[in-house]
Write a structure and sequence with these properties.
Elements: E1 3-5, E2 20-21, E3 28-29, E4 39-44, H1 50-65, E5 71-77, H2 89-99, E6 105-107, H3 112-116, E7 121-122, E8 124-129, E9 134-138, H4 154-164, E10 177-180
Parallel strand pairs: 4-5, 5-6
Antiparallel strand pairs: 1-10, 2-3, 4-8, 7-10, 8-9
């Protein structure tokens, strides 16, 4: 496990399109799925990572709390499932069902979507406005598996509130911290090796 931080993609970046299968419904999910929404939250997560396990209940709660609001949510796993079978589509489907995810959970087998988003760790959060422009990227909150700070989602929830209210967000945002995405051999993107410790 390599403790890795978000690459902190430039704010205002246009969301890259994608065509990925939802592991539960098997439907193809793309940006067009969320057309007309006030905001879109793209989360790069997986099943085996202790950082994701630490917050997974809050991720499910986010889906419930914003289900009646104008926010699209999609989770994506891009880990190399050959080496990490817990992150294979069947296992991800079980995770989504167990946690009660009410949003698509997609599998990025080629890892091209993760690269397009400059995703570096799990979890990694990208929040876009109604024009699919990046408004927030960074942490869920200050909680980590070892620091005993309660999981509240306060940073991400504040950003979502601002996007839904069409309010500006502060440009100073804290990066998410997690396990590095498990790239396939030879598939590591050029930004691999973002700030880590």
């Amino acid at each position: 496990m390599v403790r890795t931080a978000s690459t902190m993609l430039d704010l205002g970046t246009q969301a890259p399109d994608f065509q990925l299968p939802d592991v539960v419904s098997e439907e193809t999910i793309s940006l067009a799925t969320f057309s007309g929404k006030q905001g879109l939250l793209v989360m790069f997560i997986c099943r085996h990572c202790p950082y994701v396990k630490h917050i997974q209940t809050e991720l499910a709660q986010l889906g419930q709390d914003y289900s009646n609001q104008d926010l699209g949510i999609v989770a994506i796993s891009a880990n190399n499932a050959e080496k990490y079978p817990d992150d294979a589509p069947g296992s991800l489907k079980a995770m989504a069902i167990e946690l009660g995810f009410n949003f698509p959970f997609c599998y990025d087998q080629s890892q091209e979507t993760a690269k397009a988003y400059s995703a570096a760790c799990t979890p990694d959060f990208f929040l876009f406005d109604r024009a699919f422009k990046l408004a927030y990227r960074g942490q869920l909150d200050d909680s980590r598996p070892s620091n005993e700070i309660p999981v509240t989602g306060k940073d991400l929830r504040a950003a979502i509130g601002a996007v839904l209210a069409d309010q500006p967000l502060a440009s100073e945002q804290k990066p998410s911290i997690g396990c590095n995405i498990k790239w396939k051999p030879g598939n590591e993107p050029i930004y691999f090796g973002s700030p880590s410790s």
